[in-house]
Amino acid sequence: RVVVREFTPSRSQARSWRRNQALRFLPETELTDEYYDLFRRYQLARHEASDMVQMSATEFADMVTDGSAALELLALRDTSGRLQGALLADALPDGFSAIYSFYEPEPAHRGLGTLLVLRLIDLAAQRDLPYVYLGYWIAESRKMRYKALFQPQEQMTATGWQAVALPA
């Protein structure tokens, strides 16, 4: 989990924030076709070998609406209102648990994946929540490597939460 009060963005993360400062990050309640269309583009560009590429619109809606009553749908929208990214997160008493994010895959240098996590950390700070949980982490997984870039972090161990420096 990221320790919100101690988090300071890296230079690269700060650049992503500045480059995308015109994008609004806001909670939304209505799941529209626009979300599924973006999800499909993201899956095809970033995870074409994944089973999620085959997900139907109904299965996608179930993923978003089934489960936790504390689930928040958070959107990144440009100045024209066009959806640029989305993040599903559970609101917990001590923070947010990021469940899944997806975003416009091109151009890749925009850093929208990074921005979504940064905005979630900022939202946690605004709500005075101490943590953002990024989920489990497998050091050998290239696709999970981004999680190590958000420091400082704590990791659950047999003796409880411990500060950890994950290798980037």
Q: Percent range for helical residues?
A: 25-40%
Taken from the alpha-carbon principal axes, the silhouette is globular
What Rg, in angstroms, do the CA atoms define?
Answer: 16 Å
The profile of the biggest β sheet is: 6 strands, mixed
What is the strand content? 25-35%
What structural class is derived from the secondary structure elements? alpha+beta
From N to C, what is the helix and strand string?
Answer: EHEHHEEEHEEE
Count of helical regions:
4
- Terminal-residue CA separation: 15 Å
Compute the number of strand runs.
8
Instruction: Catalogue the unreliable spans.
Output: none
What is the residue-averaged pLDDT?
89
Q: In order across it, which strands form the biggest sheet?
A: 1-6-5-4-3-2
Write a concise synopsis of the structure shown.
The protein is α+β, with helices and mostly antiparallel strands and 168 residues long. It contains four helices and eight strands, in the order βαβααβββαβββ.
How would you portray this structure in words?
- This protein is an alpha+beta fold and 168 residues long.
- It has a 6-stranded mixed sheet with strand order 1-6-5-4-3-2.
- A hairpin with a 5-residue loop joins β3 and β4.
- It is globular and about 45 Å long.
List keywords for this structure.
168 residues, alpha+beta, two-stranded antiparallel ribbon, 4 helices, 28% helix, 27% strand
